[in-house]
Structure formats: C-alpha cells, structure tokens
C-alpha cells in the first residue's frame, strides 16, 4: 500500500514537523507540502520531527491542484479530512481496500479549500463529542493516518 499526505497552506512549523513524525510512525512514505506550508530545513520543523523530515520523502508544489492531478493520474484515492455536510466518519477507511491513498489536511484556521474538497474522492471527519468542532491539525493527521 502506498500512503502519502498532502498539507495545504499549514502555517505552523511545529505542526508540519509533528506530521513528518506521524508519517514515520504510521508508515506514510511521503509528505506533499503545498501553498505556503513551510518546508524543511527549518529548526522548528526539525525540533518536532525529531529527524523524520530527513528520511520521509517530501516535495513542494505551490499549487495543490497540480499535485492532486498528478496523484489521481497515478491512481491515488484522495481523502480530505474536513468537516463538510457530506463527510463520513474516518473509521470507514477500514472498510475500503485501496492500494494508493492520499490524505489532505488544510490550514489550521480555514481548513481544506473548497477547490480541493470538490475534487476529492471522499471527505472524512473525526467526530467530536463535546463543544469543539475540530482537533489540532497534527493530532487529527495522526489519528487518521493510524486508521489507514
């Protein structure tokens, strides 16, 4: 199984570093950084990645649509982690058998852009039980990555 994650316009270097570390733990082989997401080498990424940014493959695309177009051509199923009306609980990923998966996570405040939501194969959520609507992006990434 090929598993990658695309980060679109994240602003926090610490979140990016934590997601690199999540990739190592959950067996994701690549991070695609898009928009204004910070890229290695940066001290604050290295501090939370604990070196994972040096062995997990990564690439940068200014335009996330270009990256998604390439991934779809390669046969990847695209899953946006975002609170939408049509989103399904992330645990449904257990029911699907896909050889190539790309998870998309968006900006810490604005989430995944509408244009990416529109071209994804499925939107998935992590149901919240109390008053908050979402988790920190690196925490959400870790939960869904391990579910895959």
Please give a structural write-up:
The protein has 148 residues and is of the alpha/beta class. The protein has a single domain, classed as SPOUT methyltransferase, trefoil knot domain (Alpha/beta knot, 3-Layer(aba) Sandwich), CATH 3.40.1280.10. Helix content is 35%, strand content 23%. It has six helices and seven strands. It has helices at residues 13-26, 43-49, 52-55, 64-73, 114-119, 137-147; strands at 2-8, 30-34, 57-61, 77-81, 88-89, 100-105, 122-125. A seven-stranded parallel β-sheet has the order 3-2-1-6-4-7-5, sandwiched between helices. Helix 1 (13-26) runs parallel beside helix 2 (43-49) and helix 1 runs parallel beside helix 6. It is globular, with a radius of gyration of 14 Å. The model has no long low-confidence stretch (mean pLDDT 92).
Percent strand equals 15-25%
Distance between the termini: 10 Å
Q: Report the total helices.
A: 6
Mean pLDDT score: 92
TL;DR?
By secondary structure, the chain is α/β, with parallel strands linked by helices. It has helices spanning 13-26, 43-49, 52-55, 64-73, 114-119, 137-147, and strands at residues 2-8, 30-34, 57-61, 77-81, 88-89, 100-105, 122-125.
Key attributes of the depicted protein:
148 residues; alpha/beta; Alpha/beta knot; 6 helices
List the helices and strands and how they pair.
Blueprint: E1 2-8, H1 13-26, E2 30-34, H2 43-49, H3 52-55, E3 57-61, H4 64-73, E4 77-81, E5 88-89, E6 100-105, H5 114-119, E7 122-125, H6 137-147
Parallel strand pairs: 1-2, 1-6, 2-3, 4-6, 4-7, 5-7
Helix pairs in contact: 1-2, 1-6
């Amino acid at each position: 199984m090929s598993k990658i994650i695309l980060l679109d316009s994240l602003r926090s270097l610490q979140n990016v570093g934590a997601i690199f570390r999540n990739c190592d733990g959950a067996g994701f082989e690549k991070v695609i950084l898009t928009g204004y997401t910070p890229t290695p080498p940066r001290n604050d990424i290295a501090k939370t990645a604990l070196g994972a940014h040096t062995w997990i493959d990564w690439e940068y695309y200014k335009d996330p649509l270009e990256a998604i177009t390439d991934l779809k051509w390669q046969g990847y199923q695209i899953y946006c982690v975002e609170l939408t009306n049509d989103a399904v609980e992330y645990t449904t990923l257990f029911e699907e058998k896909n050889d190539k998966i790309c998870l998309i996570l968006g900006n810490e405040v604005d989430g995944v852009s509408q244009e990416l939501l529109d071209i994804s194969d499925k939107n998935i959520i992590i149901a919240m039980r109390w008053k908050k609507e979402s988790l920190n992006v690196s925490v959400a990434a870790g939960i869904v990555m391990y579910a895959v």
